[in-house]
Structure formats: structure tokens, C-alpha cells
Write a structure and sequence with these properties.
Layout lengths: L9 H4 L19 H13 L10 E4 L4 E2 L8 E2 L3 E5 L14 E2 H4 L5 E6 L4 H4 L13 H8 L4 E6 L4 E8 L2 E4 L6 E4 L4 E10 L2 E9 L9 H32 L9
Parallel strand pairs: 2-5, 6-7
Antiparallel strand pairs: 1-4, 2-3, 4-6, 7-8, 8-9, 10-11, 11-12
């Protein structure tokens, strides 16, 4: 059905983002509150230092089309990040989905948030049924070969991470609930704190100095605090200058 003569690249003749389904109203279940909030925190703190924000793409609960031989097959990761692609599709449009044969770049990291209904598939404990699409694990490990695959169980607060090595996922040994990803120059760890007014253990990115990367709200607060400090420093400098002038018998108000 998709053969052409002369042969063309899949990017030319397979469906594009505009042709493929982005929503399925018949699919049962909607994300719970944790599945809504946790990806927001991941998005807000995912800042690979060697890439400008314009060349980083992140998505949650978005259709990921992965197989040129079966262009209607897709998976929907809870969250994934890609570096080296423009933030906007073809540098102009918001994405409806992520289509591998159009983008040409696989995700650098995929995060799945475990829930009772998806745990077995997320951990590779289910098998592909005859004439059915491959499982998530098979797609991430064998088809896309995503370098880092992370799963987090919010019920037990357990973090597990897998690194793609020699064709398979190898579980990474974690001495603490943190995993460093050298190719991204970022780490992902379990952080206890408030996000959106809720205190619990969250997944959050950290930098090479083991510092949690601030959220946009925290950055704004830091900038406001820095502005207040600069203003106070300027006030104190002006006060010291005025005191020196008075000591010299000069009224500083007359110089204004």
C-alpha cells in the first residue's frame, strides 16, 4: 500500500502529523490528578544545558507514532523529552502528535507513572498478542531504542530506571532515588516538596551540581528577591554617600 516507484523516503509518502489521529474519544479512562501535575513539574524543570529551549520538545499523554510499516500504531507515554528537534513542528506549528518518520529524532527519555491498570505493560511483563501492536516496553526498547526509560510508582514512591545497552534495557543500580543521564547532562530524582500547593514526593530534574532545577515560579521568586537585594544595596549606598557629605558639611538634598 505504501510502496512507491521510484522509492521515496517515509517522510515523503507516509502520513504526517496533520493526517494522524491525535485524540481517541472512545479510549476509556482519563488522567488522574497526579498524572496531570507530575508531567507539569517534569516539563518545568527539564533544561538540558547544551540545548537552547527552542531545540527541546516535551510532551505528556501525546500520541507517539513509531513504526513506518504500521503508520497508525502509536503509544502514549506519560511524559517524554526530545533534544535536537525544534520546539515547534517544522518551526511553526504546535504538534498534534509526535511522528518518528517525520521528526527523524527519537525521544531521549521516556517516563511512565505506574498505575494498577498499566503497571505490567510499563514494566515489560506483558507479551505481544498475535496480530496486535507491540507492547510499550517493546516499542521503547526494541523499536525506538530510547536511551533512558524511567518508571515511578507513586503508591510506593519507588523510582526505577533502565538504560539501553547493547540492544536491551539494563536496570540501573540506584544507591538513592536519583538517576544521572550523561548524554543529557541532567539527572532525575525523587524530591519532597510543594508543587502546585501540594506536598508529596515528586519526580524532578537536577543539574550536575546536584541542585534541583528551579521551576518557573521559583525562578520568578528568585529574580524578584535579587531585584529587592539590588534595590536595598542601592539604598544603603545612597545612605552612606549622604552621611559622608553631611560629615563634610554638605547638605546632600541641595545636590539633588
Amino acid at each position: 500500500m505504501y510502496q512507491t516507484d521510484p522509492t521515496r523516503s517515509p517522510k515523503e509518502y507516509l502520513p504526517t502529523m496533520y493526517d494522524l489521529k491525535s485524540e481517541d474519544p472512545e479510549e476509556p479512562g482519563l488522567p488522574d490528578q497526579f498524572h496531570e501535575l507530575q508531567p507539569q513539574l517534569l516539563r518545568d524543570t527539564f533544561c538540558p544545558p547544551t540545548y537552547s529551549p527552542e531545540w527541546v520538545f516535551m510532551a505528556s499523554d501525546m500520541n507517539l507514532y513509531y513504526d513506518v510499516s504500521h503508520p497508525l500504531w502509536y503509544k502514549r507515554p506519560d511524559w517524554f523529552g526530545v533534544v535536537g528537534v525544534p520546539q515547534l513542528y517544522q518551526q511553526r506549528d504546535l504538534r498534534l502528535s509526535y511522528v518518528i518518520w517525520q521528526e527523524g529524532v527519537i525521544p531521549s527519555v521516556v517516563v511512565e507513572l505506574l498505575s494498577p491498570g498499566t503497571e505490567k505493560e510499563d514494566l515489560g511483563q506483558t507479551r505481544q498478542e498475535l496480530n496486535e501492536p507491540p507492547t510499550k516496553w517493546q516499542v521503547y526498547e526494541q523499536i525506538l531504542r530510547v536511551p533512558y526509560y524511567v518508571v515511578f510508582d507513586r503508591y510506593t514512591d519507588q523510582l526505577r530506571a533502565f538504560e539501553w545497552v547493547d540492544g536491551y534495557y539494563r536496570e540501573m543500580s540506584l544507591n538513592q532515588p536519583r538517576v544521572w543521564m550523561p548524554t543529557l547532562e541532567l539527572g532525575l530524582g525523587v524530591w519532597l516538596g510543594f508543587f502546585q500547593g501540594i506536598e508529596r514526593l515528586w519526580l524532578r530534574w537536577y543539574d550536575a551540581q546536584d541542585n534541583w532545577i528551579p521551576t518557573s515560579t521559583e525562578r520568578e521568586a528568585q529574580e524578584a528577591q535579587q531585584a529587592r537585594l539590588l534595590l536595598e544595596q542601592e539604598r544603603q549606598r545612597s545612605q552612606r554617600l549622604a552621611e559622608r557629605l553631611r560629615a563634610m558639611g554638605i547638605d546632600p538634598e541641595l545636590l539633588e
